[in-house]
Write a structure and sequence with these properties.
The complex is a heterodimer of chains A (about 475) and B (about 500). Chain A is mainly alpha-helical and about 475 residues long. Chain A has two domains: about 180 residues; about 210 residues, no CATH class. Helix content of chain A is about 75%, strand content about 0%. Chain A is built from 19 helices and four strands. In chain A, the strands form two sheets. Chain A has a two-stranded antiparallel ribbon with strand order 1-2. In chain A, a hairpin with a 4-residue loop joins β1 and β2. The N and C termini of chain A lie close together (about 5 Å). With about 500 residues, chain B is mainly alpha-helical. Chain B has a domain of about 210 residues. In chain B, strands 1-2 form a two-stranded antiparallel ribbon. In chain B, strands 3-4 form a two-stranded antiparallel ribbon. In chain B, β3 and β4 form a beta hairpin. Classes of the chains: A mainly alpha (about 475), B mainly alpha (about 500).
C-alpha cells in the first residue's frame, strides 16, 4: 500500500504515543504519591496498548519519509508489534514484581517506554544516523534499568557492567557506521548499498565487522555475550524479561537492514559470520545453562541460546528464513517472558525464590500454572505441538534450503541438549514433591497475575504451534509487503 | 465415512483427546468417576478402531480413507491421514493395548489419578497419529507428542529410580528424533513436499549418496526407538521403572513405532540406501537377537528379563524387515503385533504379582502354580507364545521371518534360530523358577488368583494369541498387498529373479 505524500506524522504516531505515555507516567509517578506506583504502571501499559492499536492502523509504506530517515515498511511494523508485545508482557510482570519488592517503579515504567521508543525508532530507521540515535535512546535507559535497584549489589553490578560494555560496543558500532559514510558518501541505507557495492571489498568488510560487533553485543551473540548472564540475573526479573527479549527483536531488524541494504554485496561474508555466531551462541548458551543452579541464571543462558537459533535464520537469509525469523521472534518473546515469569510466581517473606528446588511440587499447588509451564518448557526445547517447535522447524528448513544442513543439525542437536536443563524445571514441578507448607509460595500463595500470564502464554504457544499460519500469514505479508 | 460429523481417521485419532478433556473436567476427588470415564473412552476408542475394519478394503494395497487438509501453506505441510493394512493392524493393537493398560490400572495406580489417565489418553492419540500420519511433518509432531506423556508416566508413577529412567528415556529418544527431523527436512528439500504418497509416487529422485545420509538420520530416530543394539540401554531402565500400564504400552506399541518408521519411511523412500545398508542392519539385528537373549538369561528381576527379551524379539522384526523379501517383511509385521500381544501380556503378568507382593525378584517366588492355577495357565500360554510354540501366534511370525530370510542368507537364519533356542531357555527357566517347585516364601502361601477384572484384561490377548496362531489368514491378508508394495519398491530384483 502506498500512502500519499504529506500525510504528516502518521507513520511516527506509535512512537509519539509511547513518548507521551512515558511523560505521563513520569508525572503520574511524581504527583500521585505512594498510590501512584501502580498508577504509573497502568499509564505505561495503557500507552503500550494504545501504541499497539495505532501501530495496527499505521499504513505500511516502503517509502522513506522525513528526509529519508524513517521507514514504516511491513517488516518494521511487524517487528515493532513484537517489541510492544515484549514491553506489555514485561509491564504486567512488573506489577507483580514491584508489589513484592517495593522500589521506585515509576522511573522503571517511564524508562521502559523510552527504551521501547528507541528500539522502534531503530527498527524504522532508513538512515544509519537514525539507527544509531535510536540505539542510543534504547541503550542508555536500559543501563539504568539493569541497575535500578542501586542498593542491591547484584543489580548495581549489572548496571555498571552493562553500561561499560554497552558504551564500548556503541562506540565500535559508531566507528563502523562512520566507515560506511566514508566509503559510501551517504548515510541513507538505500543510497549507501549501491555505493558500498562499488567500494573496495576489504574496507567494506572492516566496516561490516565493526557494525556487526556492535549489533552482536546488543543481541548477546557469542562471543559478545559476556555481559548478558550477569545482567539478566542481576536486573529485576521483569526488566530481565524486557532486556532479554525486545532488544533482540530490534537488533534482528537492524541486522537485516544492514545485511540486505548496506552489505548485500558481501552476503557470503556475513552469512559465514552469522553461521559461526549461531553455532557458538547455541552451544555456549546451552552448555553453560546445563551447569546452573539458579533458575534465573539458567534462563539467562537459555535466552542466549535461543538467540542463537534466530542467528541460523539470519545466516540462511532468504524468503523462508525471513518468515522463520519473524515467526520465531514472537514465539521467543512469549516463551522467554513466561519462563522468567515463573520466577515471579511464588514469593516468600518479600523475596522471590530463584532456585529450581523452590518449584518442587508446584503441580499440587497450581495445576494450571504447572500445565502452563510445561507447555512453555516444551516450546523452549522445541517439542511439538508448540510454537517453539514450529519456529525452530522453520529456521532449520531455511538452513536446509540454503544447503546448510550441518547448521540445521547443530541446531537440532542443541534442541536435544537443552531438554536436559529445561526438564530439570519440569522435574521439580511435576516429579518431585514438597511438603504443602514448604511448597512454592508457601502460606503466601501464588500470584494470580503470573498464573494468568503462564496460562495465556501456553495457550498462545499451543495455538501458534498447531496453526502456525496465524502468525506466518502476517509474517509472509511482512515479507511481501502487502 | 464420518463418525459424529468427523472423518473416521480424525475421529479415532482425537477421540482419546476428547476423553482426556472429560477426565480433566472431572473434580480430582472423584476417583471412581475418573476411572470410569477413562476406561469408557479407552473402550470406545477400541470400538471405533474396530469400526474401521468395516470400511477397510483388504484387497487394496493403497492408502485408504485418506483425509487431506492444508496445514502450513507456506511450506506445503498437510494434515494428511491414511490407513493401509500395516497401519490398520498397528492401530488396532494400539487401541487394544491402551484399553487393556487402562483397565489394568484400576487398582494398581494410586495417587494423582487424574493426571495419570490424562497422560494415558494423550499418549494414545500420539501413538494412533504416528501410525496414521502420511505427512512427514505431521508424523514427526505425533512422534514427539508420544514422548511427553510417557516421560510423565515413568517419572511420576514409576519405581524407585524413576527420575533417572524418565529423563534417560526422554533424552535418548529426543536425540534420535531431532536427527530424524533433519532427515525429514533434507528429504523435503529433494521432494518439495512432505506427502508420503507423493514421495512414493515420485520414485527415486533422491541421489544415492544423499539417501545414505538421510537413512542414517532416520536410523538414529528409529533404531533408538526399536531399540537396536547398541542403542538399547534406555530400555531396561525405562521398563523396570515404568508402572505396569506404561511398560505394556512401551513394549507393546512404542517399540513398534521404530520398526514402523523403518518400514513406512526408510524402505520405500530411501530404497537404494536401504538396499546398501541392509546387510549392516541385519547384522545389528542379529546382535540384538543374541545379545538380548543372553542378557535375559542372567536377569534376576522379572521385568528386566522381559525388557531384554524385547530387545531380542525386536531384533527378529528388524531382521525380517531388512531381509527385503515379502515373506520376511510380512513375518516382521505380524511379529510386531505378536510381540505387542505377548510381551504386553507378560508385563501385565508381572504386574499382577507385583501388585500382590511388591517385588519382582524371581528368587522371591516359586511354586505359585499351586496357589494360582488360572494365573499359571495364562502365564504358560503367554510364555509359549513368546517362545514361538507352534499353534500360537509367535510361531507364525518367527517362522515367516526365518523362511523369508533363508534365501538371502542361511547364516543369518541360523544365528537367528539360535535366538529362538535361547528364548525358549530364558522363558521356560523363568516360568519354572516362578511357578514350579515348593513355596519357599511364606508370603506366597496366601496369594490370590486372578480376579475377574484381571482375567478380563487378559482375555482379548489370549483370544488373539490363539487366533493368530491357528488361523493367521485374515491378518496376513490385510498386510499382504501393502508389504509387497513396499518390498517391490526397495527390492525389485527379488521379483525378477527366476524361482
Amino acid at each position: 500500500m502506498t500512502v500519499p505524500a504529506g500525510y504528516g506524522l502518521r507513520p511516527l504516531a506509535p512512537e509519539l504515543v509511547l513518548l507521551g505515555a512515558a511523560v505521563a507516567a513520569l508525572f503520574v509517578h511524581l504527583f500521585a504519591g505512594r498510590r501512584g506506583r501502580r498508577a504509573a504502571g497502568y499509564v505505561a501499559l495503557a500507552g503500550t496498548g494504545a501504541a499497539g492499536l495505532v501501530l495496527a492502523l499505521t499504513p505500511a509504506s516502503s517509502e522513506a519519509l522525513f528526509g529519508g530517515h524513517f521507514i514504516a515498511d511491513p517488516f518494521a511494523l511487524y517487528v515493532k508489534a513484537a517489541i510492544l508485545l515484549a514491553g506489555a508482557l514485561a509491564l504486567v510482570l512488573a506489577f507483580r514484581f514491584f508489589d513484592i519488592e517495593g522500589g521506585e517503579p515509576g522511573e522503571a515504567y517511564t524508562l521502559m517506554l523510552l527504551v521501547t521508543v528507541g528500539m522502534m525508532a531503530a527498527v524504522s530507521a532508513a538512515d544509519v544516523v537514525t539507527t544509531y540515535v535510536g540505539f542510543e535512546l534504547f541503550a542508555i535507559p536500559s543501563y539504568v534499568l539493569a541497575g535500578i535497584f542501586k542498593k542491591e549489589r547484584r543489580s548495581a553490578e549489572a548496571g555498571i557492567k552493562y553500561f561499560f560494555l554497552g558504551t564500548l560496543s556503541s562506540a565500535i558500532m559508531l566507528l563502523g557506521l562512520a566507515l560506511v559514510f566514508g566509503l559510501a558518501g551517504t548515510t541513507s541505507y538505500a543510497a549507501a548499498g549501491p555505493a558500498l557495492a562499488g567500494a573496495p571489498s576489504r574496507a567494506v568488510v572492516v566496516a561490516m565487522a565493526l557494525v556487526f560487533a556492535g549489533l552482536f553485543f546488543k543481541a548477546a551473540f557469542v562471543p559478545f555475550h559476556m555481559w548478558a548472564p550477569d545482567v539478566y540475573e542481576g536486573a529485576p526479573t521483569p526488566l530481565a524479561v524486557f532486556l532479554s527479549t525486545a532488544p533482540k527483536a530490534a537488533v534482528v531488524a537492524v541486522l537485516v537492514r544492514a545485511m540486505t541494504a548496506l552489505f548485500g554485496a558481501e552476503s557470503a561474508a556475513w552469512s559465514l559470520v552469522l553461521q559461526a555466531a549461531a553455532v557458538a551462541t547455541m552451544f555456549w548458551g546451552n552448555l553453560a545453562a546445563l551447569t546452573q543452579k539458579s533458575l534465573k541464571r539458567m534462563l539467562g543462558y537459555s535466552a542466549i541460546a535461543q538467540a542463537g537459533y534466530i542467528a541460523i535464520g539470519l545466516a540462511a537469509w532468504g524468503d523462508t528464513a525471513r518468515m522463520a525469523v519473524l515467526y520465531y521472534i514472537v514465539a521467543y518473546i512469549v516463551m522467554n517472558a513466561a519462563a522468567f515469569g515463573l520466577i515471579l510466581l511464588a514469593a516468600r517473606g518479600g523475596r522471590f525464590d530463584e532456585t529450581i528446588d523452590g518449584l518442587r511440587g508446584l503441580v499440587r499447588r497450581s495445576p494450571v500454572a504447572a500445565a502452563g509451564v510445561l507447555v512453555v518448557l516444551l516450546s523452549l526445547t522445541g517439542i511439538p505441538p508448540t510454537a517453539g517447535f514450529m519456529g525452530k522447524y522453520f529456521l532449520f528448513t531455511a538452513a536446509v534450503e540454503k544447503g546448510m544442513v550441518l547448521l540445521a543439525a547443530a541446531g537440532a542437536l542443541n534442541s536435544a541438549i537443552s531438554l536436559f536443563y529445561y526438564f530439570r524445571i519440569g522435574k521439580a514441578i511435576f516429579l518431585e514433591d514438597a511438603a504443602p507448607e514448604a511448597g512454592p509460595g508457601g502460606p503466601e500463595g501464588l500470584s494470580r497475575t503470573v498464573t494468568a500470564v503462564l496460562a495465556v502464554s501456553a495457550a498462545a504457544l499451543l495455538l501458534l504451534g498447531l496453526l502456525p499460519g496465524l502468525l506466518t500469514a502476517p509474517a509472509v505479508r511482512a515479507v511481501l509487503g502487502g | 465415512m464420518n463418525v459424529l460429523g468427523l472423518p473416521i481417521l480424525t475421529f479415532i485419532t482425537f477421540l482419546p483427546v476428547a476423553g482426556m478433556l472429560v477426565v480433566l473436567a472431572l473434580p480430582g476427588s472423584r476417583a471412581r468417576a475418573i476411572k470410569i470415564a477413562a476406561n469408557v473412552f479407552a473402550g470406545l476408542e477400541f470400538a471405533a478402531t474396530l469400526l474401521l475394519l468395516t470400511r477397510f478394503d483388504a484387497a487394496s494395497g493403497e492408502m485408504q480413507l485418506v483425509e487431506r487438509l492444508p496445514w502450513i501453506k507456506s511450506l506445503g505441510a498437510q494434515y494428511l491421514l491414511g490407513v493401509d493394512g500395516i497401519s490398520l493392524l498397528l492401530v488396532l493393537l494400539t487401541s487394544l493395548l491402551t484399553f487393556v493398560a487402562t483397565l489394568s490400572s484400576w487398582n494398581a495406580v494410586k495417587g494423582r489419578l487424574k493426571e495419570y489417565y490424562v497422560f494415558l489418553l494423550l499418549l494414545e492419540t500420539g501413538m494412533i497419529g504416528v501410525f496414521l500420519a502420511l505427512d512427514l511433518l505431521l508424523f514427526y509432531v505425533f512422534w514427539e507428542v508420544v514422548l511427553v506423556p510417557m516421560y510423565f508416566l515413568i517419572g511420576v508413577w514409576g519405581g524407585e529410580r524413576r527420575l533417572y529412567a524418565a529423563i534417560k528415556f526422554f533424552l535418548y529418544t529426543l536425540f534420535g528424533s531431532v536427527a530424524m527431523l533433519i532427515g525429514i527436512l533434507v528429504l523435503r528439500g529433494q521432494h518439495q513436499t512432505f506427502d508420503w504418497t507423493a514421495m512414493v509416487a515420485a520414485g527415486s529422485v533422491v541421489p544415492a549418496a544423499l539417501q545414505g545420509w538421510i537413512f542414517l538420520a532416520f536410523f538414529l530416530g528409529f533404531a533408538i526407538k526399536v531399540p537396536m543394539f547398541p542403542f538399547h540401554t534406555w530400555l531396561p531402565d525405562a521398563h523396570v521403572e515404568a508402572p505396569t500400564a506404561g511398560s505394556v504400552i512401551l513394549a507393546g506399541v512404542l517399540l513398534k513405532m521404530g520398526a514402523y518408521g523403518f518400514l513406512r519411511f526408510s524402505l520405500p523412500l530411501l530404497p537404494e540406501a536401504a538396499r546398501r545398508y541392509a546387510p549392516a542392519m541385519a547384522v545389528l539385528a542379529l546382535v540384538s537377537i543374541v545379545y538380548g537373549a543372553l542378557v535375559s538369561l542372567m536377569q534376576k528381576d522379572m521385568k528386566k528379563l522381559i525388557a531384554y527379551s524385547s530387545v531380542s524379539h525386536m531384533g527378529f522384526v528388524m531382521l525380517g524387515l531388512f531381509a527385503l523379501t515379502p515373506m520376511a517383511a510380512k513375518g516382521a509385521v505380524l511379529q510386531m503385533i505378536n510381540h505387542g500381544l505377548s510381551t504386553g501380556a507378560l508385563f501385565l503378568i508381572v504386574g499382577v504379582l507385583y501388585e500382590r507382593r511388591h517385588t519382582r525378584l524371581i528368587a522371591e517366588f516359586g511354586g505359585l502354580s499351586a496357589r494360582m492355577p488360572v494365573y499359571a495357565a495364562v502365564f504358560l500360554v503367554m510364555t509359549m507364545s513368546s517362545i514361538g510354540l507352534p499353534g500360537l501366534n509367535g510361531f507364525i511370525g518367527e517362522f515367516m521371518i526365518l523362511l523369508g530370510t533363508f534365501p538371502v542368507s542361511w547364516l543369518w537364519t541360523a544365528i537367528a534360530a539360535t535366538g529362538i533356542v535361547l528364548g525358549a531357555g530364558y522363558m521356560l527357566w523363568l516360568y519354572q523358577r516362578v511357578m514350579f517347585g515348593k513355596i519357599v516364601h511364606p508370603a506366597n502361601e496366601s496369594l490370590k488368583d486372578l480376579t475377574v477384572r484381571e482375567f478380563a484384561t487378559f482375555l482379548p490377548l489370549l483370544v488373539l494369541v490363539f487366533w493368530i496362531g491357528l488361523f493367521p489368514r485374515p491378518f496376513l491378508d490385510v498386510i499382504d498387498k501393502p508389504v509387497e508394495k513396499i518390498i517391490r519398491i526397495v527390492n525389485p530384483s527379488h521379483f525378477e529373479a527366476p524361482r
